[in-house]
Amino acid sequence: MPDPNRDALLDTLASRIAEALLAEGAARLVFICTHNSRRSHLAQIWAQAAAWERGLDGVTTYSAGTEATAFHPNAVAALRRAGLDIPEPPASDNPVYHVRIDSAHPPISCFSKRFDDASIPQEPFIAVMVCDHAAEHCPVIPSAMHRVPLPYRDPKESDGTPEESATYDERSGQIRGEMQRLLDKIQDSLR
């Protein structure tokens, strides 16, 4: 059963996105977490998938952090287990993964970056804070027209344990489900 507190956060975010779509015909979402390695990428990918599935082509998603590290291999593995096509990139400290959601859309390029990276929109966007640390330590985000908290528990707590895969799959599934509900709410509000 959905958590009413989470639903309230999703309602607020859906409202902001619908406003942007109605006013500009486009909504740019930047999912922000401290290291841009796990939750922010999962949210970016699942939100974009949900938007495309619903024909909301005006929604474009990005991910960023307050620091740049790398898209964590455990998060990539969870997405692969969920059925996404993610070829292995060339070796690098911060590899660029090309995540293919379906054959109708181009792959999403995912790598770790700060929120002020050139690949992040300079036009007004909606900042979605997916971890408490980034929300607390990043009070001002240039170009953000709205800043909405939607924190997720960090799956890294299970790194190196027997629960690692299950924890990452659970978090990926939670984020996927909430992004689907979010985009359903937006689609309903635009009818």
Q: Would you write up a description of this structure?
A:
This protein is of the alpha/beta class and 191 residues long. The chain is 40% helix and 16% strand. The strands form two sheets. A four-stranded parallel beta sheet has the order 2-1-5-6. Strands 3-4 form a two-stranded antiparallel ribbon. Helix 2 (39-53) links the parallel strand 1 and strand 2. Helix 1 packs across helix 5 (164-189). The model has no long low-confidence stretch (mean pLDDT 93).
Query: What is the average per-residue confidence, as pLDDT, rounded to a whole number?
Result: 93
Number of strands: 6
Overall geometry comes to globular
Q: Helix coverage percent of residues?
A: 40-55%
Text of the CATH class: Alpha Beta
Secondary structure topology:
Elements: H1 4-24, E1 27-33, H2 39-53, E2 59-65, H3 73-81, E3 97-99, E4 108-110, E5 125-129, H4 132-137, E6 144-149, H5 164-189
Parallel strand pairs: 1-2, 1-5, 5-6
Antiparallel strand pairs: 3-4
Helix pairs in contact: 1-5, 2-5, 3-5
